[in-house]
Design brief:
Number of helices: 14
Structural class: alpha/beta
Helix content: 40-55%
Distance between the termini: 13 Å
Number of strands: 15
Radius of gyration: 23 Å
Low-confidence stretches: 383-390
Order of helices and strands: HHHEEEEEHEEEEHEHEEEHHHHEHHEHH
């Protein structure tokens, strides 16, 4: 049997999620959308205003042309804050967002050490510094989510992080021990997918994938508006698909597919073709100037990208694939070729597939880290009651 507290939590989450999607509504409109009585809505709204999560706009809201105006309500942007941190190979990138999902602080700090204990201590110090300076240690900071390029399980343990050289690091608990805040840890591609779902204006997209393209290649899969993690939480490692038995390795640090479509291979191909630039910035400059070496390298890269998207479509069957990470900048130069290759398949999984480039740029993974905390406010609690039955 459900308890009053359980029902209250469900109704609060539903009201918050509705206001997040609709923006501004009256009590009457909220009751109509959610099928709740006016008295229930009045009670829930009163609690949420007391908690400073929603606020009147000060304007009247007319539900119908002949109806009486009601008080317009919306989320209170200053009512809650969320931190997201991407742990990169050379630096950490931190974002502080408010309840509207707007970034109010952004900071990038290079690693002083790449040893797990050193990085975790520096992360804790940075989070506490931002909390103190930006929010005056306010209890409105709901927590912090960490995104890292790694195979990370459901318990927040990093099994492999090749770019950092980490193995079997209990990242979540290391950080929980150092922080007086809720802390979450997630793979960077999964985090980027959550960012698109939560802040990307993806209304109507219940099934989408983010393909994160950098040194490695990972996929974050959203199925029926939920992140698909798999049994151990390790789903989405598309970069480790092996399409050539001769290329199988007993201990993979870099997967077969990402060795073909990742940043290092692209730059190596470019330099073999006579390109002079040493990094991605220089490569992009050469490509924009239509340099022959850059064009040759990116044409080969496009073939592998099309194959990667095709495999992802066959596995997850999303409506939309969002390209993110530094190499996503290349897509406008190869879009026509990638589309042609997908159309040539004449296969149902790619017939209606949409492909876009993320608008979040370098913020995508950190924003997804913040979404790990942010989404908790809008999630309806589990109503299965299986625990009671057991």
């Amino acid at each position: 049997m459900s308890t009053p507290t359980f029902l209250r939590d469900i109704n609060q989450a539903r009201v918050l999620r509705l206001l997040k999607e609709k923006g501004v509504l009256s009590r009457a409109e909220i009751a109509r959308y959610l099928g709740l009585t006016r008295s229930t809505v009045t009670l829930v709204i009163g609690e949420l205003i007391k908690e400073r999560l929603i606020a009147p706009t000060g304007e009247a809201f007319i539900t119908q042309p002949t109806g009486r105006p009601g008080t317009a309500l919306q989320l209170n942007g200053e009512g809650a804050f969320f931190l997201g941190v991407e742990i990169g190979a050379a630096e950490v990138h931190l974002l502080l967002i408010n309840l509207f999902g707007s970034v109010i602080h952004r900071q990038t700090v290079p690693h002083r050490s790449t040893r797990p204990e050193g990085v975790c201590q520096d992360l804790a110090d940075l989070v506490l510094q931002i909390w103190s300076k930006r929010l005056k240690n306010s209890d409105r900071l709901r927590g912090v989510g960490f995104a890292v390029s790694a195979l990370i399980n459901r318990q927040g343990v990093i099994r492999k992080a090749p770019t950092l050289g980490w193995h079997d690091v209990d990242l979540k608990n290391e950080l929980l021990e150092k922080l007086p805040l809720p802390a979450f840890a997630e793979n960077d591609a999964n985090a980027a997918a959550l960012a698109e779902l939560s802040f990307g204006g993806r209304v109507g997209y219940s099934d989408l994938c983010v393909l994160l393209l950098n040194f490695g290649v990972g996929a974050g899969i959203i199925s029926e508006r939920k992140l698909f993690r798999g049994y151990l939480g390790l789903a989405g490692e598309i970069g480790h698909l092996c399409l050539d038995p001769a290329k199988r390795r007993p201990d993979e640090e870099i997967g077969f597919l990402e060795s073909c479509v990742g940043r290092n291979t692209l730059l190596a191909s470019y330099q073999r073709a006579g390109g002079k630039a040493k990094d991605l910035v220089g490569f992009m400059k050469d490509l924009k100037e239509n340099g022959s070496a850059a064009r040759k390298a990116v044409e080969t890269w496009a073939e592998w990208l099309a194959l990667t998207i095709s495999n992802l479509a066959d596995i997850a069957n999303p409506k939309l694939v969002v390209l993110a990470g530094p190499l996503s900048e290349l897509y406008p130069f190869v879009e026509r070729k990638v589309r042609k290759r997908l159309e040539e398949r004449r296969f149902p999984t790619v017939e209606e597939l949409e492909i876009e480039v993320s608008t979040f740029g370098s913020d995508c993974a950190a924003l997804g880290g913040a979404a790990l905390v942010f989404n908790g406010l809008f999630s309806v609690p589990d109503s299965s009651f299986l625990g009671d039955l057991a």
